Amino acid sequence: MKPIMIGIGSAFFFAFTFVLNASMELSGGSWIWSAALRYLFMVPLLLGVVLARKNLRPLFTEMRKQPGTWLWWGTVGFGLFYAPLCFAAAYSPGWLIAGTWQVTIISGTLLAPLFWETISTDKGPMQARGKIPVKGLIMSLLILLGIILMQIEHAKSLSLESLMLGVVPVLIASFAYPLGNRKMMELCEGRLDTFQRVLGMTMASLPFWVVLSLYGLSTVGLPSKEQSFQALLVALFSGVVATVLFFKATDMVRGNMRKLASVEATQSMEVLFALAGELLFLSIPLPSLLSWCGMIVVVLGMILHSYVANKQEESQLKPSAALNERV
Question: Most C-beta atoms within 10 A of its C-beta, which of 32, 77, 134, 323?
């Protein structure tokens, strides 16, 4: 349960992204700076943490081994994740982006065959190609159904253009984030702690953010002080706190695709936290009864997802335990 609780904590801080991005968009800020400033601000924040823990040298040692791999998956995991989310904020309200983002629960599940996982056999732990957990996928679809119920009435009022420009980029981000995270976990193999890995991926994605910043300077000019401050808050709450919590939770269950999918499913709580934030700070209208029903389905689906994953893990361990008892 500990990884699940940490995952929920990360969802709370991730929700700041949707609320603050919506606020920046309403105040006239460009999505370009909303995206780039978050990661530019994250570097000194994370660098201070890693330096204080005296863990910077091991990180640089790891990055020098495969710089191209770090550059590629850092850009995929952070660049192709956050830039599309901020782009979508320019065309759709925060609640729709937060809701659509939950498809990452299914995206993460579908990525399982691309990775190896540790399984228990009569001969002991062995590495095997990951399989899509069918029961977990069904629970993920239940979560998605709840999200659809939450958003269905609002979506009717959106134009097709807003819907596509607000949904398609988020779908891209939903695959990029878990893919980049898992590939870097696979590369590091536990040699780096969560702070080191997040800092490494952030630094590896810097070329992407520098290019995006130069594009922003040439098209929209410098960001306002208000947008810069809000981007700093996103960097602190979502970029550092939420990302570190989420990566910590995924590190705790790495090698087990079912439990990893359960941790990723906790991110469905972002919808509830983002909705609460928009109600409190942006004065959006109260959700309808159908939307409230959707929220209940989301929470129920998340609980069932975690329950199914733990049950499957127990059933895998029982044959090995019984064999040990006979021996």
Answer: 77
